[in-house]
Amino acid sequence: MKLHHIGIAVKDLEAAMKLYGDVLKLKLVGVEEVPEEGVRIAMYDAGGVRVELLAGTRPDSAISKFIEKRGEGIHHIAFHVDDVDEVCAALSSAGLQLTYQQPKLVSGGSRKINFINPKSTGGVLIEVLTELRKDG
Ligand code: CO
User: Fold this and answer.
1) Is the N or C terminus of the chain more exposed, i.e. has fewer CB atoms within 10 Å?
2) Residue 125 and residue 9: Cα distance in Å, rounded?
3) C-alpha of residue 6 to centroid of ligand 1, in Å
4) CB within 5 A of ion ligand 1: which residues?
5) Residue 77 Cα, ligand 1 centroid: separation in angstroms?
6) Residue whose C-alpha is closest to residue 74's, from 124, 112, 131, 133
7) Spatial distance between the Cα atoms of 32 and 113, rounded to a whole number of angstroms
8) Are 129 and 85 in contact (CB under 8 A)?
């Protein structure tokens, strides 16, 4: 298990991109909109570990609700694993509550992800993921 990225909830994606890109000089990996989740994502490389900026695109999205309740800030941490299906099966057997019954394909099928409910982890939302393609 290897730290892959830190997800940060932001209100204004452009403003946050100025900070992480222009000021902190992290390298932009890509920007993606996920309409079904109501979120826009900007991914930066920070020396191997990534920073994922997440902005809600509608008030009822999970990110918008998170910001309304808790304010902007760190939203989740993500670990890369070799086989997310196997890891999720083991986590379920250990009694941890996962967001999706089966890991979900995202980013045009380039990665498979799931989340461990923060109620199972002492308040930290943990994402587990497997990159299926190197260019993804
Ligand atoms: Co993430």
Assistant:
1) N
2) 12
3) 7
4) 7, 52, 78, 127
5) 7
6) 124
7) 16
8) no
Ligand 1 centroid to residue 4 C-alpha, Å: 9
**Predicted structure pTM score:** 0.92
**Amino acid present at 58:** R
Instruction: Measure the CA–CA gap between 135 and 81, rounded to whole angstroms.
Output: 17
**β 49-56/39-46 pair status:** antiparallel
Q: What is the pLDDT of residues 18-67, one digit of tens each?
A: 999 999 999 999 999 999 899 999 999 999 999 999 999 999 999 999 99
